[in-house]
Design goal:
three-stranded antiparallel sheet; elongated; 359 residues; 21% strand; binds zinc ion
Length: 359
């Protein structure tokens, strides 16, 4: 089975389980997942034995060239979805409740009113299937990560204290694009000095402040994201900064070493959090330990206390990204991506972190 046949087999198994006759796919990432074609403004329709990709005149040529041969490529309305539904006696249609707007669903219902099918929310089946990566998906994520690591080596070389936070972000993004990234994985974070206490701070047009500089960014290859964070020191780091950095590093490494199949997601978070709390920073690690990464920058599974009894599965890729943030002072985060394997884990990030770099 090739990768697309495998995806269809998994989706159709879920369709059987849930009693669905078809799935209407409208989100960009799931559209890419089921058609192998990236169209931000099209939709796909999958039944138990056929699939269609509907692309308008702006995208139809690319769709014909790129979409999987398992799909029939057509212009919207040629044929009309209503005809397909009627001809095939489709009774229950799954829709992406997590990614469809209320207006989108209303309009879909209206267009199919003559066939009067039932609609079932099924966004969860995509997140569950996509959370376990196939080797080709891991390859894309690793390729994106290698580009991001190159950008780190680059910024360490070219960074000067005269640069602004926005320039640092721009250097990272320019390097990644020149080296094969489709686009930044998300809005690059580069925050220094007092702004480094904002976990998702926005780069400012101000010169780098002394203290921590936190850079959280990623590249994209074939629609797949990467995600990494490195924190460096602008100028000499004092003892308190070193202690804080070492605490985050210890928590981050301990969580990575504990990751493995069958391990509880919530336990990974607790392990890292306890280390930070015990070092005297209780309450300053203000977000969860990690998240899945794939066609979306944040996807299943999460690594946090609200995961109940959920356990990690081989093939899942999660981040380990603890941080300590002291409002008005500074903050620090270190983030790697980790693949859960059959017998443990593989850290997909290959970028120095064991020493706090002083630049
Ligand atoms: Zn990140
Ligand atoms: Zn992350």
């Amino acid at each position: 089975m090739n990768k697309m046949e495998l995806r269809y087999a998994k989706l159709r198994e879920k369709m059987d389980e849930l009693g669905l006759d078809a799935i209407y796919v409208n989100s960009a990432e799931n559209h890419l997942y089921v058609t192998d074609f990236d169209n931000p403004d099209g939709y796909a329709f999958l039944t138990k034995d056929a699939a269609w990709v509907f692309a308008d005149s702006r995208y139809i040529e690319a769709a014909k060239a790129e979409a999987t041969s398992l799909c029939t490529v057509c212009l919207p309305g040629q044929p009309a979805l209503l005809e397909i539904v009627k001809e095939r006696g489709i009774r229950v249609i799954g829709y992406e409740d997590r990614r469809m707007t209320c207006a989108g669903l209303e309009s879909l219902k209206k267009s199919l009113a003559d066939a009067n099918p039932e609609f079932a929310p099924v966004g969860g089946i995509f997140t569950a299937i996509r959370s376990v990566k196939t080797p080709d998906e891991v390859e894309n994520i690793v390729a994106a990560q290698r580009i991001a690591e190159g950008a780190f080596r680059h910024i360490v070389k070219v960074l000067t204290h005269d640069m602004t936070e926005i320039e640092v972000a721009a250097e990272l993004e320019y390097y990644m694009k020149k080296n094969g990234s489709q686009k930044p994985s998300f809005d690059t974070i580069a925050v220094s000095g007092s702004a480094s206490s904002r976990p998702h701070g926005v780069p400012r047009p101000v010169k780098l402040e002394k203290g921590f500089l936190t850079m959280d960014y990623g590249a994209m290859v074939n629609g797949y994201h990467s995600d990494m964070t490195r924190t460096v020191s602008i100028g000499k780091a004092d003892d308190e900064m070193k202690r804080l950095y070492d605490t985050v590093l210890k928590a981050q490494c301990a969580a990575i070493d504990a990751i493995g199949p069958g391990k509880k997601n919530a336990d990974m978070d607790k392990l890292a959090r306890d280390i930070i709390d015990d070092a005297g920073y209780k309450g300053y690690f203000s977000h969860s330990l990690g998240h899945g990464v794939g066609l979306e920058i944040h996807e299943d599974p999460g690594l946090h206390g609200r995961m109940g009894d959920a356990v990690l599965l081989p093939g899942q890729i999660v981040t380990s990204e603890p941080g300590i943030y002291i409002e008005g002072k500074y903050g620090c985060r270190i983030e790697d991506m980790v693949l859960v394997t059959e017998d443990g884990r593989r850290d997909l990030t290959d970028c120095p972190k064991m020493e706090l770099l002083e630049l």
